[in-house]
Design goal:
Blueprint lengths: L2 H9 L3 E3 L1 H6 E11 L5 H6 L3 E2 L4 E5 L2 E5 L2 E2 L16 E4 L2 H11 L4 E10 L5 E10 L2 H23 L1
Antiparallel strand pairs: 1-8, 2-7, 2-9, 3-6, 4-5, 5-7, 8-9
GO molecular function: RNA binding
Subcellular location: Cytoplasm
Family: Belongs to the SmpB family.
Length: 159
């Protein structure tokens, strides 16, 4: 990911993060994918009514799908409203899908969505990461590092 892409993500008004994923997994590689949405889903995302808690991706017939993403029904939607927790197709090129498919064959690797955002063209995008699960001691180490950073920030603010 280059600096221009990072700047666009920071400017995005909607940034829905999967905070639990960074605690549970080591990120090996990241990709940005588009999402196939129906009806009122984009309106709900633009209002920030989406969640990436307990989501994961799987590959089926050469297509990447995200499972468990919750996009709340649009308040002003009528009979045409969408399902909140349906499987949604992600848009990646064939080379990226093949790379992910080969990598997930190894034990301990999975694909997790890390960030849902709106790009500068108004389209919903998802950052997904090829991830390796952390062991219990890795999680404790992560908590310790986080706590140490907090203490250092407090010490700097006092001076």
């Amino acid at each position: 990911m280059n600096k221009e892409e990072q700047a666009l993500r920071k400017k995005s008004p909607i940034q829905i993060r999967n905070k639990k994923a960074s605690f549970e997994y080591f990120f090996v590689d990241t990709y940005t994918a588009g999402i196939v949405l129906t009806g009122t889903e984009i309106k709900s995302i633009r209002q920030g009514k989406a969640s990436l808690v307990d989501t994961f991706c799987y590959i089926n017939n050469g297509e990447v799908w995200v499972k468990g993403m919750n996009i709340s029904p649009y308040f002003y939607g009528s009979f045409s409203n969408h399902e909140a927790k349906r499987d949604r197709k992600l848009l990646l090129n064939r080379r990226e899908i093949r790379k992910l498919q080969e990598a997930t064959k190894a034990p301990g690797f999975t694909i997790v969505p890390t960030l849902l955002f709106i790009d500068n063209h108004g389209r919903a995008k998802v950052d997904i990461a090829l991830a390796r699960g952390k062991k219990e001691f890795d999680k404790r180490q992560t908590l310790k590092e986080k706590e140490d950073r907090r203490e250092m920030d407090r010490a700097i603010k006092h001076f």
